[in-house]
Amino acid sequence: MKVTFKLPDGRVFTEEYDTAEEFIADQLADYDVIPDDYEVIQLEISAHPVDFTGNIGELYDFLTKK
Hints:
By secondary structure, this protein is of the alpha+beta class. The protein is built from two helices and five strands, in the order ββαβββα.
């Protein structure tokens, strides 16, 4: 899974995870790896683009409901 997101100051970063479950586990850690309010710009799962609009918190909800 690859998620590209934008920080409030406009900088753009991409984080890669082996699975969506790894992303979920990281977000459940004692601290958020990526803050919930950062805007998701692009999402790929298994090298396929996923039509998703929202922030990191909404992405977490989207993935946990799959």
